[in-house]
Amino acid sequence: MKRSRIGLGLAGTAVCAVACALLWPHARDAAAILAAQDDPAELADIQLNSALRNNKAVVEQKIEAALAANDADLAGSFVELAREKNIALTDDLSGRVSEAVVEENSSLHFARRFATGLVTGNADDVASMSGTVAGDLFVFGDIRDVVREGKHLAMGEDTDRLVLGLAIAGLAVTAATYVSIGGVAPVRAGLTLVKDARKVGRLGEGLTEWAGRSARGMVDAPMLQNAVASGSVMRPGQTVSAIRAAFHAEKAGALVRLAKDVGRIGEKAGARGALDTLRIAESPKDVARAARLAESKGGQTRAIMKVLGRGALLLAAGAFDLTLWVFGALLALFGLLSSIKSTTERLTMSWLLRKKARRLQMAAAAQPAVAVVGLPD
């Protein structure tokens, strides 16, 4: 058998082996991601491990950036993540994070932020979130928002119908909270967070469009205008009754489900974790996945979303692209096995031919000797 054919087989084997070696890491990660696409926690772990494997220094960099932005909560989240992933941090950096967390949780800071949340209705941390929830639980915050947006509606001015719908839904949920003695408090907190995210422009565009469609039709505009015209923050009982009459509770189910998921995130990952989610989420499904992630990862959730972005909630790459990696690796493996088989067959055939040739040569060499031996003296 020609040596060129064996050489081609060996070359094909080498090329396929190199292709397998190059494609295997990508195919392995792609297969793991595809298998975990319905489990947000496992999906985030796989993608995070890949990101940290390429650059472990990213954790320290993110902690420094969080401290520079006076976001002790995010810095603490990264410390938890580093501990979970066995990433060593310097004593100086860990100490600075601890000091920042203590300062952020101090009584004076908490009281000041609580008051800000109570009065303005805007929240960006635990303290101000507590203030906004307290204001909404005492219906002050929701009445304030309904009266403000209702007046805009009555005067033909630009009206944020989403804030209006959330505030009215909040009034109904607040009543349920009192009746159930706090049983639906996470929903109440979730509505407040969504409303605050909308006010400060931290509600994702896709989620804003969806929530706007959901809020449309929840309010009887003429009835609300009359309620606002005759209502006042100083007469909450009368105002709330008039506002509720203009509210179609049966159309608020989607927003309430969204609020419930946001409340679950707030319980496990904090108010800022919930606000981060609302900023990157494009639909209620994203928020629901984030809630499952927060329930599994707790305080690490903010750090995970900071590193992965929306990739923490769903496939960062398309399933088709991931499948191509797996298919490419399988194709290279098939080529490798085929090349090994072909080369083995050619080597075996070559060896058999050489062996047969040697036997023929030996037989030919022995033939004259036999003839000589057979002649008479």
Give structural notes.
There is one protein chain. With 377 residues, the chain is mainly alpha-helical. It contains 17 helices and no strands. Helix 9 crosses helix 11. The two termini are 46 Å apart. About 2% of the residues have low confidence.
State the oligomer.
single chain
Shape: elongated
Radius of gyration: 34 Å
The SS-based structural class is: mainly alpha
Query: How many beta strands in the DSSP annotation?
Result: 0
Order of helices and strands: HHHHHHHHHHHHHHHHH
Protein traits:
377 residues, elongated, mainly alpha, 17 helices, single chain
Strand and helix layout:
Layout: H1 3-35, H2 40-54, H3 58-68, H4 72-84, H5 91-104, H6 107-120, H7 126-137, H8 140-154, H9 161-179, H10 185-199, H11 205-215, H12 221-230, H13 236-245, H14 253-280, H15 284-297, H16 301-308, H17 319-373
In short:
The protein has 377 residues and is mainly alpha-helical.
